[in-house]
Design a protein that fits this description.
- By secondary structure, the protein is an alpha+beta fold.
- It has four helices and eight strands, in the order ββαββααββββα.
- Helices cover 16% and strands 28% of the residues.
- An eight-stranded antiparallel sheet has the order 2-1-8-5-6-7-3-4.
- The chain is globular and about 50 Å long.
- The chain starts with a strand and ends in a 33-residue tail after the last helix.
Length: 224
């Protein structure tokens, strides 16, 4: 895999970024679990398909999990999102663009990184911070973006996880980017594993979708 790093100013840097724990020492287990699950689905055909994602394999981290759909260069919207993301945003985020979670000054950088995830394809990992102001405490977050193919074969979906560490508060949070790590997939067939058959996937186009109380509702369907 090819790796490069961006610092918060958007320039590439050669330093190694610690992304295994928050400053508080809290583990980033949901992010590492999602990455391990995605990696296990890699095959000689390339990155996994959206339809291969089985919610049962992510059941204990669904509240942090989301699915994105690419709708334009550097722009993707939420097709599904767990309750943790709704809490951070202070509203249901389904249908919103990913950039809605970011400060205006950070949106160009996240759009550039997102397009790299789709185009390379690549894994994108972000170290985020929402600065404390107006009585709110500083809030750290981590996010990972894992590319997926649609049933048409194009890389236009993302399996993602976002985890925060700290008090969210009652008002919506927006984040700046402290660090970005992009890991482009090179010689993917050499590192791929045979994907296992699955019989379920996240359902996205259900008209009766409701905001989950504690995690995403499991709906078993073969449809995209």
């Amino acid at each position: 895999m090819k790796t490069f790093f961006w610092n918060g100013s958007g320039s590439k840097a050669g330093k190694i970024i610690a992304m295994d724990r928050f400053d508080s020492g809290r583990s980033l287990f949901p992010i590492r679990q999602a990455e391990a699950y995605w990696t296990a689905l890699l095959s000689g055909d390339g990155v996994p398909k959206r339809s291969q994602i089985d919610p049962r394999g992510l059941e204990n981290i669904l509240e942090y999990t989301f699915i994105l759909e690419r709708i334009a260069p550097g722009l993707a919207r939420f097709r599904l999102a767990g309750s943790h993301l709704n809490k951070i945003a202070g509203m249901e985020v389904r249908g919103m663009p990913l950039t809605a979670f970011f400060d205006p000054s950070a949106r160009d950088q996240v759009s550039e990184a997102l397009e790299e995830v789709f185009a390379a394809p690549a894994i994108g990992e972000f170290s985020l911070v929402s600065k404390g102001k107006l009585g709110r405490t500083r809030l750290q977050a981590r996010m990972i973006l894992l590319p997926l193919r649609s049933d048409l074969g194009d890389v236009s979906r993302v399996l993602g996880v976002m985890v925060s560490d700290g008090a969210i508060g009652a008002t919506p949070r927006r984040f700046g980017i402290e660090d970005t790590r992009i890991r482009a997939l090179v010689n993917i067939q050499d590192q791929a594993h045979n994907s296992r058959p699955v019989e379920a996937g996240f359902a996205e186009d259900q008209a009766d979708f409701q905001r989950p109380a504690k995690h995403l509702r499991l709906v078993f369907s073969r449809d995209e």
